[in-house]
Write a structure and sequence with these properties.
Distance between the termini: 28 Å
Helix content: 25-40%
Number of helices: 11
Radius of gyration: 20 Å
Strand order of the largest sheet: 2-3-4-11-5-6-7
Oligomer: single chain
CATH class of the largest domain: Alpha Beta
Length: 375
């Protein structure tokens, strides 16, 4: 689910970008969710999860989705702001939850917190969730475990949404099925891998469409397998997503997507993409999403993992680069530093997204976050 290749910095903000104070942006977003019925503590957690994309990246999974995804979920009743997840099975180290359509931006973090609590006692905690809604950046929730000195794993299917085709298939059977792993790295920024199992998530494609720029080859293909660079083709039905690994390695991306489907949906009993009813064609809605969150506390198994992690990631950072201007970095490095800079200097938002926030504020009787002066 990253918008930039691993190990590279994000490009500078585009012209027309508006900067806003990070704390003000979080407070505003929480107020919007509170106005839609979320209790204040849930609204604050949901706001942090949503704004993670704008703070750390990818922007395609940040506030651009407020009016496109999360407010419609609440307004249409597909997400219940006051839902109380129900424990269906509790075996100590492992728990099965029915989220009961709670907003995934909050519920995934709450599930990770529960997993971490169980990991403190058992060395590992696993929470399998059914009846969920879209959780935003999976990496944000995985980081909740890393902040407690643990390894965090998040895997999510897309419920009954079908937008990616198995190799050789004429219809779609799966979603983008993201997976994320976060781990402490000692004195270094946490390791954070957050990725879709398709070559790109839909958010990246739709962001390119909004910005009017073409996609690189290898993300979309048409009905006869030819590459498509027009991002509008996805929602217009003229192209479908390619798997991670491209044409040659597509079975790897497809296999990873099925792995996520097993972990998140088959284990929890949520809606699945592959189903006999899916043979009619592409489509379906991302309702009854399943996800699996797990926290591993390595220090309960042996001492010294913190020092070993610092040595491991330090060795990568110190690895001699081919080009001194492009040092070796690992997933999570740039996201960590980008978030620190934006908390200090302000969060860049696309001008169109900022205008949407102003409109939301006007309709809700709220004050939109003020645009900061300067570059």
């Amino acid at each position: 689910m990253t918008t930039t290749p691993l190990g590279t910095a994000q490009s500078p903000p585009a012209p027309g970008t508006v900067r806003v104070d990070a704390a003000a942006l979080l407070a505003f977003t929480a107020s919007v969710f509170t106005g839609r019925g979320l209790p204040p503590h849930r609204a604050e957690r949901a706001a942090r999860a949503l704004c993670h994309g704008d703070l750390a990246g990818p922007r395609s999974h940040g506030l651009a989705n407020l009016t496109r995804l999360y407010l419609p979920l609440l307004d249409e009743g597909r997400a219940d702001p006051a839902a109380e997840p129900r424990v269906l099975t509790d075996l100590g180290a492992s728990v099965l939850w029915d989220a009961r359509r709670a907003l995934g931006l909050w519920a995934a973090g709450a599930a990770m917190d529960l997993a971490a609590e169980r990991a403190e006692r058992h060395g590992i905690g696993l929470v399998s969730v059914r009846g969920a809604t879209h959780l935003g950046c999976a990496g944000h929730h995985a980081l909740r475990a890393a902040e407690r000195g643990m390894v965090g794993l998040v895997a999510s299917n897309c419920g009954r949404q079908r937008i990616a085709r198995p190799p050789g298939a004429a219809v779609a059977m799966l979603g983008t099925n993201p997976i994320s792993l976060a781990a402490p790295a000692g004195a270094h920024p946490p390791f954070l891998l957050d990725m879709s199992t398709t070559a790109a998530p839909t958010g990246v494609v739709r962001q390119a469409a909004r910005e009017g720029r073409p996609l690189p080859e290898g993300l979309l293909r048409d009905e006869v397998g030819a590459p498509v660079t027009d991002p509008r083709a996805l929602d217009e039905g003229r192209a479908h997503l390619e798997w991670l690994g491209g044409e040659v390695g597509r079975y790897k991306g497809f296999g990873l997507a099925l792995m996520v489907e097993v972990l998140s949906a088959l284990v929890s009993g949520s809606g699945t993409g592959p189903h006999p009813d899916a043979h009619g064609g592409d489509g379906g809605r991302d309702d009854d999403i399943g996800f699996l969150v797990a926290a591993i506390a390595p220090d309960t198994l042996r001492q010294g993992t913190g020092a070993d992690a610092e040595a491991l990631f330090g060795a990568l950072v110190d690895c001699p680069p081919v080009d001194p201007a492009e040092p070796v970095r690992y997933p999570g490095w740039y996201e960590y530093h980008r978030a620190r800079e934006r908390r200090r200097d302000g969060v860049p938002l696309e001008g169109a997204v900022y205008a949407e926030l102003v409109d939301v504020a006007s309709r809700a009787g709220l004050r939109a976050p003020t645009a900061l002066e300067g570059p």
